[in-house]
Write a structure and sequence with these properties.
about 250 residues, four-stranded antiparallel β-sheet
Length: about 250
């Protein structure tokens, strides 16, 4: 199995935390999509993708519709996507994805956690070389689909040949190495008749660092503290997940 698949499989269950925070974070993503492309899903590919993710996370329809309506309001805050990066304890690299309407507040919150755990917040882009930026799509599997053939057709968009199949949910997850091809991949999947195509961006470490149990516990606490902030969407590290098999 591919590195992106294994890493995400080992960490995805820890990503969102409590349901209330999940809905808050997805609501912010809806706001950005609506501001950029309008409130009609049929005319807004980004919004369609986020709504599919909302459904997969069991976000009620009323919540989705309310988030879209709020995003259309004149007083709705403008959210910005900001990534913070630095080193946590034990030399572990930490990426923090945020959606914020107040960067002063957010950077203060993030810096306070780095300081508390004796970490160092770096400049934007300083640790980019340690992570691969990827796009991820999850969609309903169609009867009779030949995944090898599908992946072959997607190779022009730099989609990896490894994919994640969830038999219980009946879904397929694919990974693209070129984030700029996000819209093209989404359009291709829609043109092929796949349904509920949820997409997102993720960071996958290209050099996992192995640490002992005590060090892992400290990093886990740091990540948990960062994820407590409503502005924080995802936290990525190059710490080798405990569940990841040996290479």
């Amino acid at each position: 199995m591919g590195r992106a698949f294994e890493y995400r499989k080992a960490t995805k269950l820890k990503r969102w935390g409590h349901m209330a925070k999940t809905f808050t974070r997805l609501g912010k993503q809806i706001a950005i999509a609506v501001k950029a492309g309008g409130p009609e899903p049929e005319n807004n590919p980004s919004l369609r993708s986020i709504i599919a993710t909302c459904k997969r996370e069991n976000m009620p329809k009323d919540n989705i519709e309310r988030a879209i309506k709020n995003a259309m309001g004149k007083d709705q805050s403008e959210y910005k996507e900001v990534t913070y990066e630095g080193y946590g304890p034990h030399g572990i690299a930490v990426f923090v994805d945020t959606l914020t309407d107040n960067t002063t507040r957010t950077v203060g919150d993030v810096r306070s956690v780095f300081n508390k755990f004796n970490g160092t917040l770096g400049t934007t882009g300083s640790l980019a070389y340690l992570f691969d930026h990827k796009c991820v799509f999850t969609f309903k599997k169609k009867d009779g689909v030949d995944m090898e053939e599908l992946i072959l057709e997607l190779i022009d968009f730099n989609v990896e040949d490894e994919f994640d199949e969830d038999e219980e949910e009946g879904t397929i997850t694919i990974y693209g190495d070129d984030v700029k091809a996000y819209a093209q991949i989404q359009k291709f999947l829609e043109d092929q008749g796949f349904e509920d195509i949820g997409g997102e961006f993720t960071y996958v470490p290209n050099d996992l660092k192995d640490i002992d149990a005590e060090q892992r516990a400290t990093i886990d606490k740091m990540v948990e503290r960062l994820e407590e902030f409503d502005d924080v969407q995802n936290v990525y590290t190059n710490m080798k997940p405990e569940e990841l098999p040996a290479e």
